[in-house]
Amino acid sequence: MNALIEARNLHKVYKTDGVETPALRGANLTVKAGEFTAIAGPSGSGKSTLLHLLGGLDRPTEGEVWLDGERLDDKNAVERARLRLWKVGFVFQAYNLIPVLTALENAAFVLELRGRPSAERRERALAALAELELDGYAERRPNQLSGGQQQRVAVARALAAEPAVIFADEPTANLDSKTGLALIEYMKRLNREKGVTFVFSTHDPRLLEHVRRVVHLEDGRIAGEEVRG
């Protein structure tokens, strides 16, 4: 497997009213294509910050981020957005679906931003929804869906775009036990059968039981990792 993501000596300091708060303190991480990996740690450990830096949503105060052979941290906001559009999928704890769009339209949204033809957008979005057993909900808007269904639409949106990697920030945190486990099984199957690379930030033991690699983060530093199977 090839190195897909590399983080080199990442530091991130947030400044609020002149007060500096360090979130990351020299994190180094390599993720290979096809991994099913979690960044774990308690609240405030820096795991969401690290995930956002790896995906180009933010820039480090110091250090380098490389994604699929391209350096992210030296790009401006427009350049990072363009790279995310083509190579990165995000699944957020709060779903981040567009309320006025249907599940189908939400799933096709990234493809629309890419300028793909409408027929292709529809075909790929429907296929992604079907993968997640949501094809019967294609015309429903987010307020007509349960939390678990909305989270699966968010996964379908990421999947339809066929990115190099999907970053998922606490994807099961708002889900009940049954729905959370079902979503984990869906993502495991996509990883196993389609080779989709997943990187999670989480402290949910349900998810940590199923990943193949756990990177432990404490006080902004990588404290160790476990590799399974």
From TrEMBL:
The keyword ATP-binding applies. GO terms for molecular function: ATP binding; ATP hydrolysis activity; transmembrane transporter activity. Residues 5-227 form the ABC transporter domain. Keywords: ATP-binding, Nucleotide-binding, Transport. One of its GO terms (cellular component) is membrane protein complex. Pfam families: ABC_tran (PF00005). InterPro entries: AAA+_ATPase (IPR003593), ABC_transporter-like_ATP-bd (IPR003439), ABC_transporter-like_CS (IPR017871), ABC_transpr_LolD-like (IPR015854), MacB-like_ATP-bd (IPR017911), P-loop_NTPase (IPR027417). Gene3D superfamilies: P-loop containing nucleotide triphosphate hydrolases. Coiled coil: none annotated. PANTHER family: ABC TRANSPORTER ABCH.1, IMPORT ATP-BINDING PROTEIN. This is ABC transporter ATP-binding protein.
